[in-house]
Protein 1
Amino acid sequence: MDISINIQKETVLSDNWYVLKRIDFSFKNKKGEWKSVHREVYDRGNGAAILLYNKLKKTVILTRQFRMPTYLNDNSNGMMIEVPAGIIENEDAETSIIRETDEETGYKIQEVTKVMETYTSPGAVTERLYLFVAEYNDRMKVHEGGGLESENEEIEVFEISFEKALKLISEGTIKDAKTIMLLQYAKLENLI
């Protein structure tokens, strides 16, 4: 289905952290009639995420950190278990995720495999998320990780069995979409 779109006006509502805009536009519906609507759109740039896995130990590296939006939406302590991830900063997605992996986990990886691209909340957020996997071993751990103090990151890094991570999804402990997608990808592709 092709849709004809005419954007009439973009209004910046906030540019404090990222950019929130109101977009006034019209589109031609199935009947061929033009309809005018508006939507709020949050532009935070694109991101990348990665599942680090170890075939021999049958483990994965995950992180835990506070996420205010989840706290505001019924997550009593605001803590989320996630795969390492971050915003792409004037670089390609692969370079970004290698940098983020080092900053967040302390693992220095060289090679990653891109497995998919997603729009995780396409009704409101412009972000395209690039998802990767990479094997790790203990020799790749070069520092403690934990994120950057300059970004006020306080990230707990932990190694967990792959089977336990999958169980945390079914128990409802892991609720982060990118983490669930990557763990399920690893299961479907028999990575571990």
Protein 2
Amino acid sequence: MAMLKENLIYAMALALGISASQMPEFAQQYRQRLGGAVEELGHVVSEFDRDAAGAGLSRAQALDLHQQATEPLFKARGRSMSAAIARYENLVEQQKDFAERSPLLQPLVLGYSDRAVFAGAWQDFRPAVPITSAGLLWAAFGFFFGVGAMYMLAALLRWIWRAGMLALRRSNLISARRR
């Protein structure tokens, strides 16, 4: 039984190590999609800014005009443009964060990823063999984290099992004394 437990622990740790090794590759594919999204939204924002400047307005003034409009279409267009500008600025910040981090730490940027970009990257993601140092380090981290997590889970389950058995024995002793 102990050998089965050890094999299960190492199999789960190996699976986690392989999964973790894919983080740098997924971050790279996400970063490529992020670049495309920044470029496309950049065009939309710059066209809006150019239209506003052509009317003698700043971006903020043009957005205010949309918000003050009585026509629902113009109000809705102002809200969607505000959301597009905010998303663009967030994506640009995320792009800068990717550029400033080493390849080993780039997967951490995914912690605050854009949902649409993440979903697209996930849908098209193809695993790759982790031959980079970042991929190998993430694989090792995942493996050792998996070993530790599985040992802790096994210890917790063993503790719960023993506590339950102890409680059962006590209740059996109490009911036996009452007879």
Protein 3
Amino acid sequence: MTISPLSQVAAAVKALADENAAGRRIGAGSFDAVEAARAGFARLAGVGPERVATGSSVTVHVGLIAASLPAGAEVLSPEGEFTSVVSPFALRGDLRMRYVPLAELADAVRPSTALVAFSSVQSADGRVADLAAVRAAAAAHGARTLLDATQSAGWSPLDAGAYDYTVTGGFKFLLCPRGTSFLTATEEAQAVLPPLFAGWAAAGAPWTSNYGPLERVAPGARGFDEPPAFLSYHGAEHSLALLAEIGTDALYAHATSLAARLRSGLTELGHKVVPGESAIVSVPGLDSRHDELTRAGIAVSAPAGNLRISCHLYNTEADVDRVLDVLG
């Protein structure tokens, strides 16, 4: 849908870009902004900042987890899962991948399963996983869990401490600039992650460990930090603060009420909509209307043959009604 700019986020990014262009920003950005974003995400995720690593992409974070598994380990995922969640495991070549329908994921966990890797909300169509059932099944069989919360964090409550790992791209419902990604890991799960991408930022003391091999990485999840994309994190500091100020309950109520209005309207128009309470509304087979909506200035997507419409914080009932008018 049409985006109304978040003024503080845009202003922070522009201010840093202007400082860099004028040569006034030594180091290209502030680690204070990174730490503020880390703390902001930690609040939304229900964990302490020591459990959060900052980076630039979900793919890199998943790759780190994939590198921690022994050869022959079984990874269970839903069919049609987002590429970044499964490819780092699948392309290793020495892991056993198993895919099942999303609705059968919990029942498919077995004693040989080492890791269940899945999204809280499916990118392709907005279906919501049965989180409690998957967690219970994994715990019963001794499997670790990796949850991708990219499509839910920012509108749906996230209890990151309930999973061994979570990964979250910041540029969706968290309203961060692209180039922000957050990894959480329990203390036990951190212990098995290799310092595969360890660089100067992983030392935890910016600008003091730039030369020669590190003797050790920072304690906690900070030891898995990537060097930050400062422009992105200068914006993320403000978007995450805004979400915290609004609160999870209000974010959930806003997004799901708009989505319910949209589902109802689409059903009245005769379209078969993917059911549920997700903030993502999908209509299978309606992807052909994507270009028409785009020409009308409405930003939607068309993944896997679906027309997918996401209801964000910045959207209104008028936005929903405009979509329905165009489709009607």
